[in-house]
Amino acid sequence: MKFTDTAIEIAKKVKLLILDVDGVLTDGGIYFDDSGNEFKRFNSLDGHGIKMLLESGIEVGVISARSTPSVTHRMKGLGVRHLYQNQANKNEALQQLLEKLSLNVNQVAFVGDDVIDLTVMKKIALPIAVANAHPFVKEHALLVTENIGGNGAVREVCDCLLKAHNRYDALMRSFLR
Fold this sequence. Notes:
alpha/beta; Rossmann fold; two-stranded antiparallel sheet; 8 strands; globular
């Protein structure tokens, strides 16, 4: 992801990263077994990026239009405390989250992939689209990842935020000890 000077200045102020699920944290596929049980595929690189953000003091939230137990399970395992599922109007969840954390829209980054995400993306400071997002969504994003959703796009965003907050290098060095 190519960080412009403008994006870097905005990213330095980000205290909350909000993620969509289908197409961002997953590959966008919705898998069912013969009994109708739904499955999702999550990327472990994305998961570790989320953990590093949380450990660095940057909050992570998830706002999804759908609701599935697998998302609840995955977010709990990663330590994500701010999970809003079944949100047809993502702006309502955004407002609740901002109030809960005493933040404003200038301190928020959001990663989306489809037009339902645009209502939030147009309100916050750092709108980001994954590489395989709908073209209209990419037009309205300040940044577009190089990786596609479910394949390291979230990790790419996490790494960029950590770099903007000058925490990336020290974190990486800590893994060499």
